[in-house]
Write a structure and sequence with these properties.
By secondary structure, the protein is α+β, with helices and mostly antiparallel strands. It has 4 domains: 87 residues, 2-Layer Sandwich (Uridine Diphospho-n-acetylenolpyruvylglucosamine Reductase, domain 2), CATH 3.30.43; 118 residues, Uridine Diphospho-n-acetylenolpyruvylglucosamine Reductase, domain 3, CATH 3.30.465.10; 109 residues, 2-Layer Sandwich (Alpha-Beta Plaits), CATH 3.30.70.2190; 94 residues, Alpha-Beta Plaits, CATH 3.30.70.2740. Helices cover 35% and strands 21% of the residues. The chain contains 15 helices and 18 strands. The strands form 4 sheets. The protein has a 7-stranded antiparallel sheet, sandwiched between helices. The chain has a 5-stranded antiparallel sheet with strand order 5-6-10-8-9. A hairpin with a 5-residue loop joins strand 8 and strand 9. Helix 7 packs antiparallel against helix 12, helix 8 crosses helix 11 and helix 12 runs antiparallel to helix 13. The longest helix is centred in the C-terminal third of the chain and has 21 residues.
Length: 462
């Protein structure tokens, strides 16, 4: 496999957007964590669908691996080039192409950042609900992992807001799937097949997204509990009460303490063992009624206080700590970010198991996450372990954690994707029949396995 530099230069005539071998910056050979590194022969910054198509056609004809890349915020190694070849970066394709108020849709390029899209539509009285923690992630990346975030309990995940896609297949074919229509029972849903496929089936070049009217008001509430189990159990009561919270987050006191040190913000009620953080949005009268309904339920189900964050500054500070939890742990020690999902009814059971595993193994495992949808985030902390011990103990403990999650009917990832780091756990726990179907689809769309091969579900076409 040899890259023909002249052939790529004919597709990408701007030399500043085409780098080779030793000129490729190190960060493009890894993911956001930077702990695993691949190799690449060329880095391409595409600006159009035509350029993406040309690069993929050239790579496919010559059997050259291609690794798609957006903002580079991936946490599971999906953007690491395992077999050399070409890194196809679409981060500079970051424009708003159309805002259609009649159909309540916006069309953007895949490199547009989530925070920029949210700001753009909210300035115009509209709302894009998906809200993963990393606001500097790209929309194409969010679609590729079906990102969720804190508002999923009320609004759903990225999949629920993708109306259509323009994608390029491995051989350079441009495909349009979905559209501005609300209903579609016309053949197989290729759009949904591509969402969450982590760049293994196609490269996204345009994103047609559904919007909502911007909520009239939004209010957050912090609810301290003596222990995490009581807090999470109360969430089930809240969700069944038709109070319609936008976000329901849980945090153990020990991780909040790290967040406080990192951010300089102090939470009220430091005597609590855990906190549930909720947001309500909508019409003001509806929000106030739901806040009062949940206040009664929370206090009746073990809450030691109920703190309505009416001040925008106070609410921003409380959410600042929640948003900084991963960085707060990273500031203390290297850690492995995990986003296992279990049925909501087993969230407390799973977190209890993780605490037991922490005690028996001696490896710190700090839990927080989305109590409203069972998405448990863990920071598994390295502390002072040498590399060999860290890798061995991490693997052993994660084998147990993923097995327990699957025993509850859970899955390996809610929003980070599978990539490289979760692949062994995913392959071990997923039915062979399911994997066979996934790989049949992969081979049908990418017969030479040039696109992001041996990531996620792919059993290995090379």
């Amino acid at each position: 496999m040899q890259i023909n530099k002249q052939a790529l230069q004919e597709i990408i005539p701007d030399s500043e957007r085409l780098l080779f071998e030793e000129n490729i910056p190190a960060e493009y050979l890894s993911d956001a964590l930077g702990r695993r590194t691949g190799t690449a022969d060329a880095l391409v910054f595409a600006l159009s669908t035509e350029e993406v198509s040309g690069v993929l056609r050239y790579a496919n004809e010559n059997g050259i691996p291609v690794t798609p890349r957006g903002a580079g915020t991936n946490l599971v190694g999906s953007t690491i080039p395992l077999f050399g070849g070409i890194i196809l970066d679409v981060s500079r394709m970051n424009r708003v192409l159309e805002l259609d108020r009649d159909t309540m849709t916006v069309t953007v390029e895949p490199g547009m950042l989530l925070k920029d899209l949210q700001a753009y539509v909210e300035e115009r009285g509209l709302f894009y609900p998906p809200d993963p923690g990393e606001k500097a992630s790209s929309i194409g990346g969010n679609i590729s992992t079906n990102a969720g975030g804190m508002r999923a309990v009320k609004y759903g995940v990225t999949r629920d807001y993708v109306r259509g896609l323009e994608v390029v297949l491995a051989d350079g074919t441009v495909l349009h799937v979905g559209g501005k229509q609300v209903k579609d029972a016309s053949g197989l849903s290729l759009k949904h097949l591509l969402i969450g496929s982590e760049g293994t089936l196609a490269v996204i070049t345009k994103c047609l997204l559904r919007l909502l009217p911007k909520p009239e008001t939004s209010v957050s509430v912090l609810v301290p509990f003596a222990d995490l189990g009581t807090g999470i159990r109360s969430v089930l009561t809240i969700l069944q009460a038709n109070a319609n919270p936008t976000a329901v987050e849980f945090m153990e006191r020990k991780v909040v303490a790290l967040g406080e040190s990192f951010s300089g913000v102090q939470y009220p009620r430091p005597d609590a063992g855990s906190y549930i953080l909720l947001t309500f949005d909508g019409h003001e009268s509806e929000v106030n009624a739901n806040i009062e309904r949940v206040r009664r339920l929370a206090l009746a189900n073990g809450a030691i206080d109920y703190i309505v964050l009416r001040s925008a500054e106070q609410a921003a500070d409380i959410w600042k700590v929640r948003g900084a939890l991963v960085m707060a742990v990273e500031a203390v020690s290297e850690q492995e970010p995990v986003d296992i999902v279990v049925p909501i009814s087993h969230t407390a059971d799973f977190v209890r198991y993780i605490n037991e595993l922490e005690a028996s193994s001696g490896m710190r495992m700090i839990a927080f996450g989305h109590a409203g949808d069972g998405n448990v985030h863990l920071c598994v902390v390295r502390d002072g372990r040498d590399q060999q011990t860290w890798e061995r103990e991490l693997h052993d403990n994660m084998e147990q954690a993923y097995a327990k999650a699957y025993s509850y009917g859970g899955v390996a990832s809610g929003e980070h994707g599978i990539g490289i780091s979760k692949r062994s756990y995913f392959l071990r726990e997923t039915a062979e029949e399911n994997l066979a179907v996934m790989n049949t689809i992969k081979t049908a769309l990418d017969p030479k396995h040039t696109l992001n091969d041996q990531k996620s579900y792919i059993m290995g076409g090379k």
